[in-house]
Structure formats: C-alpha cells, structure tokens
Protein: ABC transporter permease
Amino acid sequence: MNTYLSVWKLRFVSGLQYRTAAIAGMATQLFFGFVFIMVYVAFYAHSSAQPSMSLEQLATYIWLQQIFLAFVMLWFRDNEIFNLITSGNIAYELCRPCGIYSFWYAKLLAQRLASAILRCVPILLVAFLLPKPYNLTMPPTATTFALFVVTLLLGLAVNIAISMFIYISVFWTMSPVGSTLVIAVIGEFLAGMIIPVPLMPSWMQAITYALPFRWTADFPFRVYSGQIPQSEAVWGILIQFVWLAALILFGRWCLKRALRQVVVQGG
Structure:
C-alpha cells in the first residue's frame, strides 16, 4: 500500500506543475459552459413541452461538468502508459514489486485529482457570480452536498476503472486511437456529457441506466441539484460500489490475460 501511495503522491505533485495548461483549460471550459447554457436557454424559451429538468438545474448540471471535467472525461489519457505498451518497455513495469493494475490506477487517480484542483476553484467562483439563469446554484441541504461529494468520488473511481480498459486493449490493438475514440465517444454520451440523461428519450434513458457510464457524471450532478432524492442517492451509492468492484475485478482479469501473451523483442 505504501508503494501505491508514494506513486500517487509523486504523480499528484508532478501534475500540479502544469499551471499554464490549467489556465488554458479553464478558459476553454468557461467558454463551452457559456455556449452550452445559452443553447439550452434558447431551447427552453421556445419549447412548449414541460422539461424534466428546470433551467436552473440544467445550468448547475453543465457547470458541474466543466468544474469537474478532469473527473468525468473518458478521453483523458496517459501517453506514458501507451508508450510503455507499444514500445516494449512494459518489461520494466513487470519487474516492479507491485501489481501493474494498482500501480497504473494510482497514477491515473493522481493525475485527475491534480488537474481538477488546478482548474475547479476559479471556474467555481465565476459560475457562482453569474446572473440567473446562467449561474451555479447551491445544493438544497448540507446532507445533499455530503452525498454529492461521496457520489462524485465514487464516480471518479468508476471512471478510472472504465478508462483502464482503454490501456488494457492496447496490448492487443497496439494502437490507443481506436479504443480511446470508441470508449470516450460512447461513454461520454451515455454519461450525460453531451445531452443530460433526463432530456434523453425514455428508451435511451433505459440504456444509460443499464450501463456504468451515468454513475460517473450524471448521477452525482443530479444528486447535487436535488433532482435525485436523498433516499435514492443512498441506493445509488451502493450501485456505484457494485459497479466499481465488478469493473476492477474484470479489469484485473483482462490485464492478467493480456500479460500472459506479452512478447518483448530485442535485448
């Protein structure tokens, strides 16, 4: 355990050094946050049907996406791991006195946390200071906020477990492009990152509820706004734990099979 904590700490401190990239990322996230909300404001103004989310809840949903983008985006990638696999330097990883899955998981967790810490506070302040209906609202109660923190962290853990399959697939494909695009595009759509899940057709919502992606973003964001009741949020936390355990166990099994077939050529 000390090994993985040390890896996490080193990668976390290293990630905090990329302040210029964080500033550029903040500007981009603020821009897209404004654009998405303005689009939905126009749709809501000309819609005759009663929406399943209020405009205030939707604005909060979108700002939470931008604030915690490093937590929920599936296209976040560590090129160092890809290079280890494709170049044959995975042999050095096999010599480490620790499990590769846990080692990589700790690295990815630290990178996402460092990226989120650098960007979230400035975006949070701007989003709170905006006028209605463009602003980020406070959660209804302190209990709701506590449940949001728990669901967000569990969603982060589930997201990393899903992203691990991108790296594992490279053992067979030898290219990260295909698996990254497929998992990222499908996963982010089903997680509500393109269209919030409550605004999807009922048949599409049924698909999202059967897969793990919505538990990484849609679920914690709706818990924050109070659209998901506290009793339902508690049951959702249990489901997040189940998905996390299943994804980690299956990921470890896939990685073990992949390592059995690894062939490192050269001296």
